[in-house]
Amino acid sequence: MDKHHQQLPLAKCSRQQRCSEWVFRDVPSDITIEVDGGTFSLHKFPLVSRSGRIRKLVAEHRDSDISRVELLSLPGGSESFELAAKFCYGVNFEITAANVAQLCCISDYLEMTEEFSKNNLGTRAGEYLESVVCKNLEMCVEVLQQCENLLPLADELKIVSRCIDAIASKACVEQIASSFSRLEYSSSGRLHMSRQAKCEGDWWIEDLSILRIDLYQRVITAMKCRGVRPESIGASLVNYAQKELTKKCSLWNPSNQQKVDLVSGLNGHERLVVEAIVSLLPIEKFAVPITFLFGLLRTAVMLDCTVACRLDLERRIGSQLDIATLDDLLIPSFRHANDTLFDVDTVHRILVNFSQQDDSEEDMEDGSVFDSDSPPSPSQSAMFKVSKLVDNYLAEIAPDANLKLNKFIAVADSLPAHARTIHDGLYRATDVYLKAHQSLSDPDRRKLCKLIDFQKLSQEAGAHAAQNERLPLQSIVQVLYFEQLRLRNALFCSYPDDDHKPLHQSWRISSGALSAAMSPRDNYASLRRENRELKLELARLRMRLNDLEKEHVCMKKSMERSNSRKFMSSFSKKMGKLNFFGHSSSKESSSPSKQSQRTDSKLTERT
């Protein structure tokens, strides 16, 4: 169809007035067409010569001389019918990306095909769609946007699928061309890809953000099938989510108490967007920033998205948790007014996913893991980073009065024992929890402190723990025991020519960090051995504590039966036996002062 050079001033007049500008003015109209949004007084001959549908309607009512036709559910409404009527009257107008989808749908609805007229509207619109629109990515996006109001007919006519295939193909070609343009020779003469902050072939990312979510989802799926880079797909998802969800994500206010009302007031569009974006995320790691994944997870929790959607996000975050920050883990809780300030259950599931991933990597045989002295593997370094992150997270949530003990322990215990080489962070978090929850019973305090390996405390943390009144007595005894071992090892290291070897010489001296003189694999095997030795020593310590308790009972009975002089004599003897870290070898009895001097000299010899 020829393009016209002068547009008709259609915007300044009503539908009936518009028709008077291009219909036969000297011939009275003999048919009235009613469509959604307007009424047209036209002539039968131009319409029946091009439209098979109107021809059939007129033929069915030939005897009654029909003068009024209703076309309900007309695709595109009165605007589309006006363009079709202009074509029937031979009025020139321009086919563009803004109206080609409407013309294709209205021509199909009115049956304006080659069967009724040569070079009919359906043929003209189809040729323009194929030869012009499908060769230009921006025009395809514009046509898809117009198809949003023409579904499902536009889908049945394959307008949507043709535009989607064209967009995917063009994006892939643009990306390949951009990759070739980034090839350059290095100083050594080798061909390599130059690094750029943003790929020039990804200019289409902004264009796709205007599409509705259902069409956008189909476009991204087609791009993934065509082989578009995961980084480009991720960048497009981030851009689309920021435009659709930014306002909703900023609605949450930590000081707002009406959390339930906020969630219930949101419509389902944002939930649909989040679930669709999660389903489109590339399977490759680092295709999208982890902060974006956490943002999606917060929004999914707030909007109460499906369980599968949230679990998928938690699994993806768990696979790259080592690059997360403390602010990422602080996910607000939106469920109940009396719940914790932060969503501890979600973080616990993320940690479980991370630990399960680490366990799957540890299923290899020990020989294949420790057969060389190579540097620590990424999984080991990731485990150390996550352990520090978890300890900081525990210290952050510990002051929450609504935080239950079982949840705190579950988060702290979600990592394997070898994840923490030093327990200072875990001790600090535990101390904060004990300070904020002073009503804990003694069994609960002992249960909580079992998380801490006091052997892995640094010298400063050990000194603090030894004077910490919030710790149970058993924990303080363990701290003193390990502090004595540390001091003993330090003294023997100062005198290497001594014939006596220090007890548990392989244990850490000043901190729980790995020894630099040993390879990571040897350290791992050493940790396992030390763990077994520590369990044996703890068992011996429990036995000694039981003996002390029995001695204490005997002392009380003796005090009740004896007079004060006998009591002082018996007390001196019992004090000589109270040695936490060794058995007394002296069988002589003497005055209390001499007995005390002997006890001090024995402790000095052991240390």
TrEMBL record:
Q: Where is the NPH3 domain?
A: 202-486
The residue ranges flagged as biased composition, category Low complexity, are 587-596
Q: Which domain of life is it from?
A: Eukaryota
Q: Which UniProt keywords apply?
A: Coiled coil, Ubl conjugation pathway
In its keyword annotation, does this UniProt entry include Glycoprotein? no
Where is the segment annotated Disordered?
358-379, 578-607
Specify the BTB domain's residue ranges. 29-97
Show the InterPro entries listed in the entry: BTB/POZ_dom, NPH3/RPT2-like, NPH3_dom, SKP1/BTB/POZ_sf
* Basic and acidic residues composition-biased segments: 597-607
- Which stretches are tagged as biased composition: Acidic residues? 358-368
Q: Which residues form a coiled coil?
A: 524-565
Pathway(s) where this gene product acts: Protein modification; protein ubiquitination
**What is the similarity comment for this entry?**
Belongs to the NPH3 family.
Q: What is this protein identified as? A: BTB/POZ domain-containing protein At5g48800-like
Organism, as annotated: Coffea arabica (Arabian coffee)
Q: Which gene encodes it?
A: LOC140004213
